[in-house]
Design brief:
Elements lengths: L2 H4 L4 E2 L3 H21 L7 H13 L4 E5 L2 H11 L7 E5 L5 H8 L3 E5 L10 H6 L5 E4 L11 H11 L2 E5 L7 E2 L2 E2 L6 E5 L13 E5 L2 H11 L3 E2 L4 E2 L10 H10 L3 H18 L5 E3 L6 E2 L5 E5 L2 H10 L2 E2 L25 H9 E4 L7 H13 L3
Parallel strand pairs: 1-16, 3-4, 3-5, 5-6, 6-9
Antiparallel strand pairs: 2-10, 7-8, 7-14, 9-10, 11-12, 13-15, 15-17
Helix pairs in contact: 2-9, 3-9, 4-5, 4-8
The chain binds pyridoxal-5'-phosphate.
Length: 375
């Protein structure tokens, strides 16, 4: 290890400080309108953001909510997921997808991912179907679409509801269609690290159906009927903050620019990382990924992480424990070996630095470090 490598500045897999140091004043300006109007919860900015976010997807409806987890919970509830139901979710995902099923008193049933795209495997999902299966939730993980043709065909054949989890995939394409437009309801997170990120928690449900929009809107606001003052059913405080909506409205017009820069970085990685021990995610047929996370499979993860850290490059892991083996879901009785592709990925995946403000010098630094890695 030369001093030169050690003296470089630390590079993380996502650098929000850099993003906000470049746009802090702009964001403060954007916040001044809702603050001056004392418009804080579920207000005018939220209404406007909902219209603009629905229009971005060429869909009729969008509901702003408190987080991506809230969006999943409310979308499932609005589509009738409840006690006694089973919902198929990929085990290779963030835990929220399965938690939302649990919150609805239903049972998450975990399926495996494919060995190459690492997205939900429709064949594995088919094996999970029982007479109790109500819905399936394709998660467009890392920013890449699932195989929606096969998932929709499966759903049609078995009369399942499809709810898309687009938390990592704003703007991603599948055969020319935006993710989130191929199901009855789709859920988004605007957690700060997402491709469209707020300055705190926020989420949305988008849908072509007015009845889903109405139900989500009511449930998120404690099921209050403003005309009568009646809380018509058990509701939840899952409203979106107007301040978050104002920031999201400011960022939305540039989302395609963000996706273009992320794609440029990802394409450079795909072209220039030439090491058989560092294998990237395969892009599925017809997919236009937006590269929220750039994941690679390495045979010896601890050695790879040490190798990168020696060069002041700090990678991420998404995710170290597949959902079916998480402590939270121990009660379901899964064991190691049940979903081999997810388990292998959990042991070997690494997320390389990728964010729009990453400069070309840092990009080359990561490529060089990957290419220098030996088994
Ligand atoms: C795939 C996926 N689903 C759901 C969520 C939950 O979103 P939130 O953190 O906004 O609740 C996330 C957040 O990271 C996610 O990555």
């Amino acid at each position: 290890m030369t001093n030169d490598l050690n003296s470089r500045k630390p590079l993380r897999f996502c650098d929000l400080q850099k993003e906000y140091s470049l746009c802090a004043q702009e964001i403060l300006d954007v916040l001044s309108d809702p603050i001056r109007k004392a418009d804080f919860c579920n207000g005018e900015q939220v209404r406007l953001f909902e219209q603009e976010f629905a229009a971005y997807h060429a869909l009729a409806y969008s509901s702003g909510v408190g987080s991506g987890t809230d969006a999943l919970f409310l979308a499932m509830k609005s589509l009738g997921v409840g006690e006694g139901d089973e919902v198929i979710v990929p085990s290779n995902s963030f835990v929220s997808t399965a938690l939302a099923v649990y919150y609805n008193r239903a049972t998450p049933v975990f399926c495996d991912c494919t060995a190459d795209t690492w997205e939900l495997d429709p064949k594995s999902a088919e094996r999970c179907i029982t007479p109790r299966t109500k819905a399936i939730v394709p998660v467009h993980l890392y920013g890449q679409s699932c195989d929606m043709d096969r998932i929709r065909a499966l759903a049609e054949c078995h009369d399942l509801t499809v709810i898309e989890d687009c938390a990592q995939a704003h703007g991603a394409l599948y055969k020319g269609k935006k993710v989130g437009t191929m199901s009855d309801a789709a859920c988004f997170s605007f957690y700060p690290t997402k491709n469209l990120g707020a300055i705190g928690d926020a989420g949305a449900v988008i849908t072509p159906h007015s009845y889903i929009k109405e139900r989500v809107d009511r449930l998120r606001n404690l099921s209050l009927d403003k005309r009568t003052g009646d809380h018509t059913e058990i509701g939840y405080n899952m409203r979106m903050d107007s301040l978050q909506a104002a920031v999201l409205r400011h960022k939305l017009p540039n989302i395609d620019g963000v996706i273009a820069r992320r794609t440029q970085i990802a394409m450079t990685y795909l072209r220039e990382i030439r090491n058989p021990h560092v294998v990237p995610q395969t892009v599925g047929e017809g997919c236009g990924p937006v590269w929220n996370l750039f994941c690679v499979y390495v045979s010896d993860r601890n050695r790879f992480l040490r190798h990168m850290e020696d060069r002041q490059i700090f990678c991420g892991i998404h995710y170290a424990v597949p959902c079916h083996l998480q402590g939270a879901f121990r009660y379901l009785g899964y064991s190691r070996g049940d979903l081999p592709n997810c388990e292998s990925l959990a042991e070997h995946c690494v997320t390389l630095p990728l964010f729009p403000d990453m400069d070309d010098t840092d990009l080359q630094r990561v490529i060089e470090a990957c290419n220098q890695f030996t088994q």
